[in-house]
Design a protein that fits this description.
It contains seven helices and no strands. It has 186 residues and is mainly α. It folds into two domains: 1-71, Four Helix Bundle (Hemerythrin (Met), subunit A); 104-167, no CATH class. Helix 2 (18-38) packs antiparallel against helix 3 (42-65). The longest helix is centred in the N-terminal third of the chain and has 24 residues, at 42-65. The relative contact order is 0.07.
């Protein structure tokens, strides 16, 4: 599954057609959602499937309807961008060396946070389901923040695309368009 994810990533890097890019990004999100569900992060996986593979794809396809489907010509290889990407990737890989092995029962999370949630959730929240209590109560502000970001992003896209047509002109409220090429008749 990780090899398939890597193959889709390489395909995203090389594609020049914007429709293909949107389709591959959706496939990437779907594969990532599948991996997250396989790692028992069902809530994160379902969010990735809904937002990454669902809503983002619809928004990008809607925006793509209004623009050209080919990327603007430019440099194919940009050394500064490549060096920046390699340095960032190396820093991320270096950062993972300090993490405990996936699923390690002796990891720090199993000694500090998890026991507190397991012991205190029924008393503090009055909910028998620990996952629901964590997402709705303990992480309530985090969830509210994520929802606010998604709402603000959607609102921004709607404001940018409001009244636009595929040819780039704005539509008038009365349904009439002024033809800029003819000029004003005197």
């Amino acid at each position: 599954m990780l090899l398939l994810l890597a193959a889709v990533t390489l395909a995203v890097i090389g594609v020049r057609n914007l429709f293909g890019l949107v389709a591959l990004s959706s496939v990437y999100s779907f594969i990532m959602a599948t991996l997250l569900i396989a790692m028992d992060a069902v809530d994160v996986g379902m969010t990735e499937a809904a937002v990454g593979a669902g809503v983002s794809t619809v928004l990008l396809l809607s925006a793509l309807h209004l623009v050209r489907t080919e990327e603007a010509p430019g440099k194919i290889f940009q050394p500064i961008a490549a060096v920046l990407a390699l340095v960032t990737g190396a820093a991320l890989i270096y950062g993972t060396w300090g993490l405990p092995v996936y699923g390690d029962p002796n990891g720090p999370i199993h000694h500090h946070v998890a026991p507190y949630y397991i012991e205190q959730t029924p008393e503090e929240m009055g909910m028998p389901n620990i996952v629901t209590a964590v997402l709705a109560s303990y992480r309530g502000y985090d969830t509210l923040g994520e929802t606010t970001v998604i709402f603000t992003g959607g609102l921004g896209v709607m404001m940018l695309l409001r009244g636009r047509r595929r040819d780039g002109s704005k539509s008038k409220k009365g349904g009439q368009r002024r033809d800029d090429n003819k000029g004003d008749a005197a």
